[in-house]
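Section 5: illustrative case.
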């Protein structure tokens, strides 16, 4: 993984984003803060600590070609439902040197685990990623 967590301040909020899988889908309704987070990451990637961040959205020229050139990057894609085609999804699945944070609803064609599905969560001015799918542990029988 490129980053296990990304933490920063953007007054009045504190952001603590923890990642549990190489591919993270950040899902949520419109106006839930996904695109705003993307915009904050545009500035954060200019710091030395977060220089591995590579951002793509609907304004990106030559998106498909540029995505295929990425190695050892933390790739953030906003509006992934509009941008990603089948070939992009295959690249994401099999280019293991990259880590991905995708803002999209349609996860067809992506190799994901339960740890991949996240929602933006705000609690007391702290923004975090909350697991969307919670799989209950099986009770162990006592003998």
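Designed sequence:
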């Amino acid at each position: 993984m490129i980053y296990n967590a990304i933490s920063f301040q953007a007054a009045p909020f504190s952001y603590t984003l923890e990642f549990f899988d190489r591919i993270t889908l950040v899902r949520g309704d419109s106006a839930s803060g996904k695109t705003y987070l993307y915009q904050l990451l545009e500035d954060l990637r200019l710091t030395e600590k977060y220089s591995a961040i590579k951002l793509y959205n609907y304004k990106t020229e030559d998106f498909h070609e540029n995505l295929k050139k990425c190695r050892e990057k933390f790739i953030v894609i906003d509006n992934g439902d509009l941008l990603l085609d089948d070939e992009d999804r295959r690249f994401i699945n099999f280019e293991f040197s990259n880590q991905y944070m995708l803002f999209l609803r349609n996860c067809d064609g992506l190799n994901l685990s339960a740890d991949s599905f996240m929602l933006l969560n705000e609690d007391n001015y702290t923004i975090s990623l909350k697991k969307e799918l919670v799989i209950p542990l099986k009770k162990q029988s006592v003998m």
